Structure formats: structure tokens, C-alpha cells
Amino acid sequence: MASAYPHLLKPLDLGFTQIKNRVLMGSMHTGLEEEKNGFEKLAAFYEARAKGGVGLIVTGGISPNFRGRVQPFGSELSRPWHVAKHRQITAAVQRHGSKICLQILHTGRYAYHPFAVAPSKLKAPISPFTPKAMSDRQIRKTIKHFARCARLAQKAGYDGVEVMGSEGYLINQFLCPRTNKRTDKWGGSFANRSRFALAIMKAVREAVGPDFIIIYRLSMLDLVPGGHEYDEVIELAKAIEAEGATLINSGIGWHEARVPTIVTSVPRGAFSWITARVREQVSIPVVAVNRINTPEIGEEILAKGEADMVSMARPLLADANFVAKAEAQQSDRINTCIACNQACLDHVFENKRASCLVNPQACYETELMMPPATQKKRIAVVGAGPAGLAFSCYAAERGHEVHLFESNNEIGGQFNYAKQIPGKEEFHETLRYFGNRLMDTGVNLHLGSSQSAESLLAGRFDDVVLATGVVPRAVSLEGIESDKVMSYVEVLRDHKPVGKKVALIGAGGIGFDVAEYLTTSVSPTLNPDEWSAIWGVDKTYQERGALSQPQPESSDREVWLLQRKTSKVGKGLGKTSGWVHRATLKKKGVHMIPGVTYQRITDEGLWIEVDGEQQLLEVDNIITCAGQLPLRDLQHDLEVAGQSAHLIGGADVAAELDAKRAIRQGAELAAAL
């Protein structure tokens, strides 16, 4: 049978070695690098992806010295005694025919510790520490440290290294006038600013010899003021090739950039255009990155000649068998990354272990396992939202007889609301995945089937799992019975008509989603050119950093997003995605007001008090998004009848509809029964 992805699955010949396909697992810090016995767990994590068919893996960033560490106890490869633990990883990966490169990452001013150094004494907005400006001697020592790290990686059995020259880390800081204010030979002209990067490349190649992969992560789009000019990107790419790079990987955006690059609202493959332009100027293979989460997108980029490989990091967290499923022409069985960041990047930036919302086994390969059940049980699951779906599939996979009951005529629960939000189209993929997995694992699905304690008892189940979800929290307020008032469920499920002026009571995740839904007519996520214009990404690359004036967005609705708390509206949203949601609504003129006391609803609208002053919001509708309550009536009825039940998901804790916790809870219960 002819491959559906001939370009994606084609080997890449590098001369001295060959990569078995065009899929590169991009670098991603997991937190295991710093845990006790973490490298043993890392080996299992990377082995699962190698076994799943990935051609080339790049590890999370490892520092070449103490000052370059991400954090005080961050991982470092600088001494011979560090080598042994890395050998666990390389052996595990290579036994499956995959190759693996260690990423050498010096954080520079992004270091989260007081020993940070940088080209100039300029504090980064994402770190509380001001770096010291590096002396000439420190610069030369750091170049030697990169070479030493590469040599040690070679001794540890790695097939190569990736030199991290993008995302606003140390090498990138030297390259851009934004962060390099030096007046010596390491600053000023581009020849001087690029001297550090080229010296590192030269030293690394000399340290490892010709038959060793060296990937250089080139910042093609800085997306910050004072970043690269386009001609500088091309000049550097050619110089990097001349210094012996094997591959050039794309770097898109600094961590401090105010342009989103990886969240779910970014269009798929949104930045492959710049990789294509660089590829035309060099003769070594180049790698496209960011929001490439299906085999189809990867195949399209390669077929169009925009890149020679495609990099995916989070999609391989979501499904370790991504490549194997593509090879088997089962892409509809891939557990697609929805780019939510909730369990991966948000965790890493909070010094927690990374995992994945849709795949809680990611980074827990040695802990959250699903061996065949020793005793087959007959289990009833009530509710086919994320928690019920996850539990049912894992339990059936273990060999249990699972009956999943859902009162509605479709699976998905609250995900059926989320998938309607502009910028959250990826949630359709999770429901497609679970729909197929229910069939593949043999779950007995009963749609349109409400359950009572009596019906469950009559079914003679060994265990009952309640994933019955939540109900919207009622708001106690004078005039709440008004026809002007509706809940978020009536908007997103029942599609009740909403007026031109709207007040939202509650500014948590649901409130933000409803505001986005009400103010967006056509999702820019589905139109990369429109999205780029809205965020000020200049594809003509006329200015440094490829930035242009963001195109204003308009909405035919005026929306007030209100909360009782006095803290910043949206403070509780995801660490790496919340700012995007706030910026998106701000562009559309949404009024975000904290510290609100709700007084009453009248025919004129909603009366509120802010900072001791009363005001009337003359709105057509008031939509309540004031949280949820667990739906547990069935638990009480079962307990009265003498039947215990397990609670998971929203039925257990209704805190801001936490799908990450719900799916993990379902998986952990399935592993335990």
C-alpha cells in the first residue's frame, strides 16, 4: 500500500548517517532532568517516542556550565561523571533505530537564579534577576564550555547536539541589538554580534569531528523590537553552514515576545513560510517548527519544499506513537496535541514535572502504567465527558467490561462547549480521538441513556464510576429571573440569541471563552494571513524582529467581563496562554472590570458598584459564568441503596472545569481498579 505521507516518512541522508524519517522531536524541558532518578524516567519517556517511530529526538536544554542553568539546580553536562546518567537515555533510544541529540542551552539573562550572565547588564522581563555583563574572558570560557559539553555528549553516546541559538537565550542575546549593547569586538556591527555564535559552532565542530550531527537552532523570527533583520538571518544561516552545521532548526519568537507562537489559537504551520525562505539560501537541511500537530500538516510543508524535516514537541507528548500511526495509515487514531499548554509548558514554568492534558501518561511512563487486569470487572461509567471518556478507555484497555452511559446524544461533555470557541478548534480532535478509541478498546457506549440508582443496581456492576460533570452555579441577585439573563450553557449549548451589549458575570476560563465566542465572527486561527496581520507579524520582514503594526480587530458587540475579585482579570488563566486571551479580548474592546459588587438587574440593565461608585451597564443581556457545582445527586441515591461509587472529574471537584485533572483522575482510577 502506498504511503499517505511519502515525504514525511522518507529517510534523510546526512552523508555520514541517515535519519529514518523526517520527524524531529523538538526540544522540551520536562522537569525530569532535575528529579531524583529522573534520568531513568527520562530514558523511558524518550524510548516510548523512539519505539513509536520518531526519526530524531532533541533533548530538553542542558546547560554547558553553572551560570547557564535554567534554575539553581538545573541540569548541566560539564563533568565526566555526568556522562553515565545520559547513557541510559541514548541506549534506550538507539535500540529502536532512532537518533538523539542533546540540546546545549545557556539561558543567559533568562536564568532564574542570581548567577545569570549576559552580553549586557539588562534584566529580562520574565526573570527577577539582573544578569552581570560577561567579560571577554567569560565569553571565551563559555565558548570552550559549549565545546566541552558537545564532547561529553558524544562520549555519552548521543548522535549529535543542538546548539540553542534562538528563543531569546544567550546566543540570541548576543546577536540582537535589543540585548547586546557592547562596544567591544562582541558588540556593535552584526559581524561582531555574530562572532559568539560562530565561535561556538567552530569550537563544537572541532571538538566532535566530522561524523557527528550538529543542529543549530537559528532565530528566524525574533518577534521582538530590536531583533534580527532579515538579511542578518540569512547571513548568519550561511555562516553557520560554513562552520560545519549539519542541520538548521527554526527558532520562532523570544519567550518575552508579545506575539503568540505556540498556543492553540495560533494557526497550524503558521511559520513555515520563513523556514522556506531560509531554505532557499542554504544547502544543508532545514527544519520547520511550531503548531505542526498532524501528519497531514507535516506532509504538506515537506511536499511544498518549505523544509526538509518538521519538528514536533508537544504532539509527541500527546501521542508517543504518532509516527507509527502515520505509517500504519491510522492518523485518525492519533491523540492530537490541542496546544493548550496546561500540563506541559505551564508545569515547566511552575517548576513542576511536565505531562500532557490529553495524555497523562506522558513523563509518567514508569509510574502510570496500564497492565492487563488480573481480575476482569464489569464497570458502569456515568457521563462521557473528559473524565468518563479517559477512565472508560483505559479500563477497557486493561480488559474490564466497561459500560459508558451518557444522557446526551454525543460524547464530550464540556468539550462540546470548548470546541465552539474561536481559537479552540483543536478540541474537535480530542473528541474524534476518544470516539475512535471507545470503539477500538471495546467500550459499550450507551448514548441518550440517563441512569438512576435503580437502573445501575439492576445492571449488577462490580464498580460504578460517576463522571456526571457539573451544573452552572446559580447567581443570587435581585432581578436574576429577568428574560435578559441566561447562563453560559444556554449560549454555548442552546445557542440562544444574544444582544449587541452584553455583561458577563464571572471572568474565569468560561467567562473568557464566552467573551471570545461573542466577539468573534470568523476565527483568525483558520486564516494564517489574517492572524499574522492581527498580531503584527510582518511576512515581508521590513523591520527588525519581523514586526509590524498589529491590525485592529473590531466586534459588533460591546462586552463587559466582570469579576468580584480585585485581582487582575484573567490572573487565574494558564501561565503561558492567559496573556494571549487577555490581549485578544483587549484588541476587541472588551471591558474587563475587577472588584465588582453586583447590585440588581432591572429593565435598564445591570447595576454594579466599583470603587464605591454605582453605575448602570445598559445591556441587552446578562450571561452568568460564575462557576460550577458538582453534579452528585446520583451518588447520594446510590449510597442510600448501599452501593458505593467513585467520583471523578467535575463531579468530584468543579474547579474551573479542569480537564487536565479530570483526564488524569480517570486514568489513575483505571490503573487502580
Automatic annotation (TrEMBL):
Cross-referenced Gene3D superfamilies: Aldolase class I, FAD/NAD(P)-binding domain, NAD(P)-binding Rossmann-like Domain
InterPro entries documented for this protein: Aldolase_TIM, FAD/NAD-bd_sf, FAD/NAD-binding_dom, NADH:flavin_oxidoreductase, OxRdtase_FMN_N
Residue stretches making up the NADH:flavin oxidoreductase/NADH oxidase N-terminal domain: 8-331
Domain FAD/NAD(P)-binding: 378-640
Key words of the record: Flavoprotein, FMN, Iron, Iron-sulfur, Metal-binding, Oxidoreductase
One Pfam family recorded for the sequence: Pyr_redox_2
Family assignment from sequence similarity: In the N-terminal section; belongs to the NADH:flavin oxidoreductase/NADH oxidase family.
Protein name (Swiss-Prot/TrEMBL): NADPH-dependent 2,4-dienoyl-CoA reductase
UniProt source species: Pseudidiomarina terrestris
